Amino acid sequence: AGSERTSRTKAEGSRLREAGNINQSLMTLRTCIEVLRENQMCGTNRMVPYRDSKVTHLFKNYFDGEGKVRMVVCVNPKADDYEETMLVMRFAELTQEVEVARPVDRPICSLAAGRRHRNQAFRDELSRRQEERPGGPKDGSVLNQLLDSLPALPACELVDPTDEHILPRLIEVLERRHRIRQMITEQYTRTANTLKSMLQEFDGHLMAKENFIHEQRGKLGEKDKIMVNQKNEMDRLEKKSKMLEYKIDILQKTTNIYEGDKRSLQQELESREQRLNRELSERKRMEARMQGMVSDTKHQWEKECPSFTLFQ
């Protein structure tokens, strides 16, 4: 895990996201191991980035020397996995060389740091409530109170070998003490199981809240992506709207130019029509004058032609 190639596994969708999260956690684990090794070799005190991943944060106290850590390395002997196998083996070689000094002032416990804190807080609260309880122990401890509640042992000195009363009384008292001890043990077991179930329920609620927060963060990330896409779409539409407005302005200016040309051409056409009308009217007048002159010349010739005939 952490070295496979997605181009070969062909993972998609949720499986691809899960593999990415696993690889990221194991890369954080590798970084923590490398920082621990560097602090060991160089004597530095660099901060180990445990909080960058849930895995490293969960096992932080073990890496700090409060427990034992064992690593199991799985490799595949296939020739196709040579690069992944070499990466894993180098990491394992680096890991086995890391040595962490065990703290002296802290007890070695198998519980995590947060669980130890909650356990100590529970013990303090229990002690406070027992001290505040009426008739409860004020000076002595709970263990002393339990020992005092056990039946007192009778005199165990045998004077007469034929005495048949001391041993039966002693056996009876020891059996009573054994029964009381069993009752206390059962009660302690029930209380411990109750506390364990309460802690498991609390951990379940905490895990559910963390999952809910993780889901909400995922939904928030999706919403952010949707908002970014919508913003990009709005920017694109705004650019397109500005481009269309610019084209509309150009078309409006072109229309105004065409309308001006149309008006000028219409005026020129009207002026030409008026000129043509004037020329037609002038031509008609000229035709009328020519017809008048032709008729006058014809009458004059008619008058002159008879005299000319007579003269011949």
From TrEMBL:
Taking every annotated instance into account, which residue ranges of this chain make up the domain Kinesin motor? 1-98
User: Which compartments is it annotated to reside in?
Assistant: Cytoplasm, Cytoskeleton
Question: SUPFAM superfamilies, from UniProt?
Answer: P-loop containing nucleoside triphosphate hydrolases
KW Phosphoprotein (keyword) present: no
What SMART domains would the database entry show? KISc
Provide the leader sequence positions. none
Q: Name the coiled-coil region(s).
A: 220-289
What's a single GO CC term here? microtubule
Q: Which Pfam families is this protein grouped with? A: Kinesin
GO BP? microtubule-based movement; mitotic spindle midzone assembly
Give UniProt keywords alphabetically.
Answer: ATP-binding, Coiled coil, Cytoplasm, Cytoskeleton, Nucleotide-binding
Give the GO molecular function terms.
ATP binding; ATP hydrolysis activity; microtubule binding; microtubule motor activity
What family classification does the UniProt entry report for this protein?
Belongs to the TRAFAC class myosin-kinesin ATPase superfamily. Kinesin family.
Would you tell me the protein name for this molecule?
A: Kinesin family member 23
